[in-house]
Amino acid sequence: MMNNDDCLSCEEALQRLDDYVDRELSSTDVEEVKGHLDACKGCSQHFTFEQRIVEEVRTKLVRLDIPNDLREKVLSRLAGESHSSDTTRNT
Amino acid sequence: MSVASHENTLESPFTALLEGILDPAYRTAYHLTNNKDDAEELVQEASLAAFRAFHRFERGTNFKAWFLTILRNRFISDYRKQKRRPAVVELDEISDEFMWNVVSHQIDSGESADPARYIVDRLDTEQVITALAALPDEFREVCTLYFTQDLQYQEISDILDVPIGTVRSRIHRGRRLLKQRLWRLAEDHGLLTS
Questions:
Q1: Which residues of A are less than 8 Å from B15 in CB distance?
Q2: What predicted TM-score, i.e. pTM, was given to this entire model?
Q3: What is the secondary structure of A67-87 as a DSSP string?
Q4: Complex ipTM
């Protein structure tokens, strides 16, 4: 726990945790948070935990198998649509 | 169908853009529908709808976000109303500090001290998908876009047509709910002892 007039308090840092993890903070706010994390081990662990959870979940969800024939099916539907449009135009 | 018309479709600017985003589009569709066949059909339907509306796409803007807007709208109109989702079970809140402390004590000195990886690595992809699928609709939708696409709050706001503040609060709350469910899953499968 730390508190210094020049730095963010733990509470102020934690209020910015979600936006920091999501890269939605302004560059000034990012620097303030980083300054706090450099000096506060507790908050640093907390922020790292949150960031790593997001990264790990993303990694797992991206491993979802994509059907091999998805591209072929989509292109086939598009070709059918294109053909229908051509036929309509020519009649 | 003439060979020329098929080739025109395959080589069109639309197809070139579409092929670049089919995999992430399928992932989003899968997490929205929770079903492989429905996800495939949803991607195909969205592709057709996007093809028909391509003249309205502004070149140079984010094609993936534009396509996901169409896909999400198709999902709302064609799938969500048909599906009755099971009641969502509220879980007691578990603090990050508690999780961190429990996992830290279980990590032996031979493992890298990364509690987040320790939890998620012990769950397989299906279990993480299950945890995401168990979120209430308003959080599941936003978390699907958040976790499977690299989108900013504003882009998610545009896709879902909800204010950016709503997106922000749903992502934050959804992430907490997801973490609770991952923790419970890990406990239920005997992967953690608290």
A1: 75, 78
A2: 0.79
A3: PTTHHHHHHHHHHHHHHHHHH
A4: 0.77
